[in-house]
Design goal:
This protein is mainly α and 519 residues long. The chain is 79% helix and 1% strand.
Length: 519
């Protein structure tokens, strides 16, 4: 069981958080803010990265999603490491590494170098993520305060979605694409200054040794399985996705066997016997899958189809981020009188309505439809994230809250990586299929046009009038067709998850969330 280094001296203090804990929550929120900023800012920078580094379509996907892959693979490992060396210490080490690598990434000379930096940022981020959630559950023992704290934690990610596009848009208007990475530096510096003063240290004095074999197997499992799905969606059946899938499944089986036989397992698999734990985790993963997938498409739609500047695109994306903040803060209050299952179900239905609206986007319309659709999706998904996070961690016995936090974070990052890679790959496959017959047969640089919409825009700018217009029109129509299909798929998924939530979680009563141990 996790034991605080500084034990409270009175029972009241262990139940009710004081000023220091709330200030500490603000510091933890800073780390989450940078987390989200790094993801959302990069979406706006995709066109400039394409124009400057000329990545292939595969390399562009890796630039975006290798960060999430490394997070998903290492979160459980880093959560276990935090139990041993101290969660605050791990958080501060991760913050320092994140800041340094952000500076290096800003000056990447090639796409391959940038992929490497993004992988290192994923490693650094993996040291931060489990620490923030675990510390919140240790600092806030009172159920009502904990609900507000988790809502604030979710809001911090959304605030990063607001700050990232707006500040990133300003930087991209005046500086090179790499400047967006520098946004993380002052925030991480502030975290390093304030963290030691307001965050208590928590570690498990009875924790066993860290198992390197389990850590390696968890990374191989996550990265290999996601790679297999990405390659299958992008290129169809072949040797690479088959080998990656087999390797991932084999590594996963070995990981599970080791957790059941190792004296100091990284992950207690008995958590998955808890019905509320399994259901809430599944809902959380799919909801984040939907959120990350649509966000990437909308960012490109604003810039590459509607020809908005990065700052204009950032402003257009801000309402959805505000919607996430509103939904995250409202959920802890609503769930006191409404059963979590019904609130999740209603939220997923609202998100599905927004996704269906995205299937009506066109190359000639304005941004209003996309802005409204994104706002509805955000308002629908925001309560889902906070409620499922509390159910995941709260459904586990108290002595396993740290492990449950690691699983929650792993599922969230895996859902985001899968959303970007799978929905992105499906959209790309449709884009290429549509362009196969739509492009002029004597077109130079046809291969580049088929790579990404960003490349198509660059090529079209170099072609003579009518031909350039024809290429641009065809490429934008193919991109929008891909958005229509993927948004429709995501809408169906959202509806199914809403039904699942009502069917499987309706036994959880309104009031303070605990998940119901053993359900």
């Amino acid at each position: 069981m996790d034991t605080p280094v500084e034990s409270p001296t009175a029972p009241e203090r262990s139940d009710r958080a004081g000023r220091r804990e709330w200030i500490g929550l603000g510091v933890l929120a800073l780390a989450c803010l940078v987390y989200a900023m790094d993801l959302t800012v990069l979406h706006l920078a995709v066109p400039q990265i394409s124009a400057t580094l000329h990545p292939s379509s595969t390399a562009l996907l890796w630039i975006i999603d290798v960060y999430g892959f490394m997070l998903a693979g290492l979160l459980i490992t880093m959560g276990t490491l935090g139990d041993r060396i101290g969660r605050r210490r791990l958080l501060l080490l991760g913050g320092a590494l994140f800041g340094v690598v952000s500076v290096v990434a800003a000056f990447s000379p090639t796409a391959e170098f940038l992929i490497g930096c993004r992988a290192l940022l994923g490693i650094a981020g993996a040291t931060i993520a489990p620490s923030t959630l675990s510390l919140i559950f240790n600092m806030f023992r009172d159920p009502r305060q904990r609900s507000l704290a988790v809502g604030t934690w979710v809001s911090a990610f959304s605030a990063g979605g607001v700050v990232g596009p707006l500040l990133g848009g300003v930087l991209l208007e005046h500086f090179w694409w790499g400047s967006v990475f520098l946004l993380a530096v002052p925030v991480m510096a502030l975290l390093l200054v304030l963290g030691p003063r307001v965050l208590p240290e928590f570690r498990d004095p009875e924790a066993g040794r860290l198992d390197p074999a389990s850590a390696a197997l968890s990374v191989v499992t996550m990265v290999a399985l996601v790679l297999a799905m990405k390659k299958l969606a992008q290129d169809g059946p072949g040797t690479v996705p088959l080998v990656a899938a087999v390797a991932g499944l084999l590594a996963g089986a070995l990981f599970a066997h080791r957790q059941l036989t190792c004296p100091d397992p990284m992950l207690d698999l008995r958590l998955f016997r808890l019905g509320a734990f399994r259901t809430a985790l599944g809902i959380n993963v799919i909801a984040i899958f939907v959120a990350f997938g649509y966000f990437l498409f909308v960012a490109q739609y604003f810039q590459l189809v509607l020809e908005m500047t990065p700052m204009q695109a950032g402003a257009a994306m801000a309402p959805s981020s505000v919607g996430f903040i509103i939904g995250s803060q409202a959920a802890p209050r609503i769930v006191r009188v409404v059963r979590p299952a019904y609130l999740i179900g209603a939220g997923m239905m609202l998100a599905a309505v927004g996704l269906v609206m995205l299937t009506q986007l066109s190359a000639h319309g304005g941004p209003v439809l996309a802005v409204i659709a994104s706002l509805l999706i955000a308002l629908g998904l925001a309560p889902v994230f906070g409620i499922t996070t509390e159910l995941i961690v709260g459904s586990a016995p108290p002595e396993q809250a740290g492990a449950a936090s690691g699983v929650s974070e792993t599922g969230a990052e895996l859902g985001g990586a899968l959303g970007i890679s799978i929905l992105g790959s499906i959209s790309l496959a449709i884009y290429r299929a549509d362009l196969a017959d739509a492009l002029p047969r004597d077109l130079p640089s046809a291969d580049a046009v088929r790579e990404t919409l960003g490349e198509a825009v660059q090529v079209a700018a170099t072609l003579p009038g009518d031909m350039g217009s024809a290429v641009l029109t065809a490429a934008r129509a193919a991109f929008i067709h891909g958005v229509h299909i993927t948004a429709g798929v995501a809408a169906v998924g959202a509806l199914l998850v809403g039904v699942l939530a009502v069917a499987k979680l309706r036994h959880v009563p309104a009031g303070e969330l605990s998940g119901g141990h053993g359900h």
